[in-house]
Amino acid sequence: MKKEPISPIFWAVFVAALGYFVDAYDIVLFTILRTKSLQGLGVPADQIFTVGIDLLNWQLIGLLLGGIFWGILGDKKGRLSVLFGSIFIYSISNILNGFVTSVEFYRLLRFTTGLGLAGELGAGITLVTEIMSRTGRGWGTTIVASIGVLGVLIASVVGQQFDWRVSYWIGGAMGMVLLVLRLNVYESGLFTTLVKKNIQRGNFFSLFSSWKKTFKYVRAVLIGMPTWFGVSILLTFAPEIGKSMGMVELPDSGRAVFFAYVGLTLGDIASGSLSQLLRNRKKVVVGFFLLTSFFMALFFLQNGLSLQVFYAFYLAMGFGFGFWAVFITMVSEQFGTNLRSTATTTIPNFVRGSAVLLTVAFKNLTPLWGALNAAAFLGFMTMIVSLWAMSSLEETFGKDMDFIEPI
Question: pLDDT tens across 272-294, in order?
């Protein structure tokens, strides 16, 4: 019997999901390896907090700048150009992370790794939303996001079971395997049709050529900030927050990441599925905002928690933060084909880059208020701002993706 060929749409979704899997693996890997790797490089114990923030910020800056570069490239040269180039740079940089011997070299490689990772999610989501049907594409992006965040769970296991250098090498090796798998992925039909029309594409600054587009872009960035408050503050500094709560046994960042991302994976599946069943993106995201706020309020009122209860709260808050799948889908649906890759790639990375502001604020507020109060203040500020931004954004379920943004 003749073997049926794999559907191009299925293969594109599968490979995009693996791309986000590798992306998510590395983005939190430094969070898990922060203390272990800096100790291995001989950083004094009293400097691990500040040096760790510095390295995290360089990674976030790489994501921000890389988002602009890969987003523009995706609209000018095609979605596949980003899928190949970004994973190649990421893989090489991640392998080199395992060979660092100084904080200076580590800083440079966290920057270049972030630069490479910046193109993964945006290009994958852009491709999936353009090749799937109006009403079905939400299922595709839910699969991408749900499989993708499983990379974090693998990172937490690998980071705890293996030497920190080996953990980086494993990430680089996965990237190289993914590079080969992408050889059979086809370009978006909407993009190839657009190229034939000779329409200007990938003009990043045209996203800000009118107040309407500027506000739409800024609001989209603000909506995603709560998830990255969770990653950059709650997960990265779980030991410091636990200490501020008066915990006898301090939580481990790796285990905090594991439980939070189990919740986030379940949240992505739930939010993505609900948005399809309810045929509405905005209501689902607002509902998850409110759910997250409830869990955070309970958490920040606690004192002297046991490790089990602490991790249970991280599981619950992670579920609440799991609107990322719907958020990325909405971003891609907001913008025309000639700017879709630019917007879909830059906005998530601007969200990630905004975490620099959160970590700097956390660093300066912690000596004054303590880690718990500083985290609570920043968490609720991001939630309030994000709810405001969400209130005026267009509902996009079932929107036709074949349209052009005026330049």
Answer: 999 999 999 999 999 999 999 99
